[in-house]
Amino acid sequence: MNGFDERFLTRNGLAARQLAVLLLNHEPDTRLPRIRDFAEELGCGNGTVQAALRLLEESGAIETAARGHLGTFLVRSERSVLWRLSGLGTLLAAMPLPYSRRYEGLATGLRTAFEEAGTPFAITFMRGAGARTTALLEGKVDLVVLSRFAADRLIEEHPVELVADLGPATYVGAHGLLLREGASLDAPGLRVAVDHTSEDQRMLAERAFAGRTDIEWVESSYMQLRDLFARNLADATVWNLDEVQGRTGMGGEVLPLGDEVTRDLSLRNSSAAIIGRTEGAKALSAVRDAVDLSTVTSLQAEVLRGERVPSY
């Protein structure tokens, strides 16, 4: 469809746009649901569905073939055309700020995978999973990238659902306990930097120092950490080592996290997850089916190894 097509503003055209969303979930050479099944799902008549299918075929979005008692099969589909006709528009994903090579690799992989799937895609960068989730719930973005741990918490509390889990070490490489040079973990009144905009970092810090009532919590972000340590305003923190590499600028120690609970929590924090609003379930299903997650992880790995220039 080139330019404006008034046919898609008619009753049949509106049904065609809804049908396009459903057909994004069907692979070529697979049998389509019956006309009456489509009609029931769309809340319209059989004739409207048949007219909608003709519109999609005339627009070059699909090609179907009737195979007798076997039913009607989807012979060919053009995902980019289906997506455009569906009215879903460009998907906007909110990601953490690209201050680490791992996040740059993740953004590069996501952009490429969505492009290959014929799905218009754009990225906006926001600091803090809370801010990104608020933007999702308010309809300002369509997808949010965050840790699997944070995603699980949000799914329990809000009308959002998991779109994809990219696996360990796709969100962060590791967390560690950072200790300022000259500071001692055993010192009373230890000043621990914490970023309350990051659910992951806050939970890790609280677990790492659980049982200590003498801790003084110091609000911080990764951008302030170097200054806090250099000015002797904080003694320790638990942090994503991707973020602080080359930023602290001092000879402090990096120590492993302590107990099994903290290590397990850190592992779940390392996996990147993508969530979307439950009300857009059909579009989310189309994204799940279309996007090749192996493309995302392989391109991220290339960026991390220095074999690919980040592009997002």
Please, could you describe this protein's structure?
This protein has 13 helices and 13 strands. With 312 residues, the chain is of the alpha/beta class. Strands 5-4-6-13-7 form a five-stranded mixed beta sheet, with helices on both faces. A five-stranded mixed beta sheet has the order 10-9-11-8-12. A three-stranded antiparallel beta sheet has the order 1-3-2. Helix 1 crosses helix 3. The two termini are 28 Å apart. The mean pLDDT is 87.
Could you tell me how far the N terminus lies from the C terminus, measured between alpha carbons in angstroms?
Answer: 28 Å
What structural category arises from helix and sheet content?
alpha/beta
- What are the low-pLDDT stretches, counting only 5+ consecutive residues below 50? none
Report mean pLDDT, rounded to a whole number.
87
Q: Radius of gyration, Cα only, in angstroms?
A: 24 Å
Strand order within the widest beta sheet:
5-4-6-13-7
Number of helical elements: 13
**What is the H-and-E element order?**
HEHHEEHEHEHEHEEEHEHEHEHEHH
In percent terms, what proportion of residues is strand?
15-25%
Number of strands: 13
| Residues in helix, % | 40-55%
Please describe the biggest sheet, giving its number of strands, its sense, and whether it closes into a barrel: 5 strands, mixed
Shape: elongated
